[in-house]
């Protein structure tokens, strides 16, 4: 492997922030290797000379509960530069003798910060104006900085929005430079990595591929692996990665849940079995899934049922193949982050993604999840590095629970049929109008509401179709795509005129947050 860890890496200490992996990703984007470790697991002896800088993440608790943070204070004496972010900034100040208290005004969302002093950390960050918009998410704040620290920038509510101890190379920022909403936030991270820690670039997508192949080989040894192939970007990349890593020991299983997009099962079999010549087992489990889901309308129940049944089917086939020890899945970091913390630190749960929260507790197969620290766009780059074609790589994401979570309320055969058609027309129209690749994800959903319409001279009473199309960088945040009125007219007419069962089309104009991308 060409990665030379002696060129230096950044250690990220996770205190349970929803954004810890974003920090790691930002460091990777700079071409530098980084590693995340939970604050609960970090040991002084593990910090060797390859670690040239430490970033302390944000987190949901506060510094008064400091006993819960088994963070060894001696780490501060190692002569290694440290950047504290949000909670990390507070704990860094507190451990150095500063004070943290609850703010009178909590800051969530965008805030302005104002430059007070020059610093290496903010070199070329403020540029011409002495103010920047940053993204805050905190209830506490540093009220007194430690001796030898000084303020580099302030906001209206936080006097110490950026602080530094130049001699010890300790830096703290109250906001989140890792999120895209912070103007020029990447500059803060890059200044820390290159100017303060003085690390050289040592990481590329080729290194990423080689490291993942090596990791898979060392995890699975000479055992057989079954791979949950859906035909989407993530599982296709996983299958191809495993194909390169372990060849014939890989068995791909494609389950038709009955909740796939129109004709998807035909396309998947053609691509992977016929064209890529992989070991593909096609399982038609339509009836099994629909039976288990009948009369279920609770979103979390749907997710759990689907997740459990998936695993059961895999276990069934694993038995047939014999001596299978592992199940490979295309779990990505956003799937994990919203279900549980990667390092075991405490974060809040948003949804049980079917390939994470839905797993049965006593699962008999061990998991191989090589993409679990990557974001979608990084997975696409990896796919290209693995020679997958662009048609597969650039597909919009499709969730494991499929159409089940795009159909709030109970699931019926009739609704599935209607929804498959509507989604097909929408996606086809996006392709025909050259819009498909401008949009990060798009789909049609069927709402459990009937409304009155008039077609010809007759009254209709049919379902409401919701269209969602979003722009996003990584699925963590999203905005709705602004279509021209003419396109909206075309697609609305096409759906209402072509599909029996829908007489009204609405467009979802919410961003994420506050909404999520999927409806359930
Ligand atoms: P949300 O709805 O959480 O979606 O904003 C973020 C991204 O994740 C996809 N998604 C899933 N993917 N299993 C998956 O493999 C799931 O259970 C699941 N739920 C949501 C969603 O389509 C979007 O791209």
How would you explain this protein's 3D organization?
- The protein is of the alpha/beta class and 520 residues long.
- It is built from 13 helices and 18 strands.
- The chain has helices at 20-29, 87-95, 185-196, 205-220, 233-246, 264-275, 286-293, 299-321, 333-337, 376-385, 390-393, 413-432, 485-498; strands at 9-14, 34-38, 51-56, 82-85, 99-115, 131-144, 150-155, 162-165, 170-173, 224-228, 250-256, 280-284, 324-328, 366-368, 441-455, 458-472, 478-480, 502-507.
- The protein has a nine-stranded mixed β-sheet with strand order 2-1-3-4-9-8-7-5-6, with helices on both faces. Strands 12-11-10-13-14 form a five-stranded parallel β-sheet, sandwiched between helices.
- A hairpin with a 2-residue loop joins β15 and β16.
- Xanthosine-5'-monophosphate is lined by residues 334-335, 338, 351, 353-355, 397, 399-401, 441, 475, 512, 516-518.
Distance between the termini: 42 Å
Q: Going across the major beta sheet, what is the strand order? A: 2-1-3-4-9-8-7-5-6
Strand content: 25-35%
Number of helices: 13
Percent range for helical residues?
25-40%
Summarize the structure.
By secondary structure, this protein is an alpha/beta fold. 30% of the residues lie in helices and 25% in strands.
Descriptive tags:
nine-stranded mixed β-sheet, binds xanthosine-5'-monophosphate, alpha/beta, 18 strands, single chain, 520 residues
How is the topology of this model organized?
Elements: E1 9-14, H1 20-29, E2 34-38, E3 51-56, E4 82-85, H2 87-95, E5 99-115, E6 131-144, E7 150-155, E8 162-165, E9 170-173, H3 185-196, H4 205-220, E10 224-228, H5 233-246, E11 250-256, H6 264-275, E12 280-284, H7 286-293, H8 299-321, E13 324-328, H9 333-337, E14 366-368, H10 376-385, H11 390-393, H12 413-432, E15 441-455, E16 458-472, E17 478-480, H13 485-498, E18 502-507
Parallel strand pairs: 1-2, 1-3, 3-4, 4-9, 10-11, 10-13, 11-12, 13-14, 16-18
Antiparallel strand pairs: 5-6, 5-7, 7-8, 8-9, 15-16, 16-17
Helix pairs in contact: 4-5, 4-10, 5-10, 12-13
The protein binds xanthosine-5'-monophosphate.
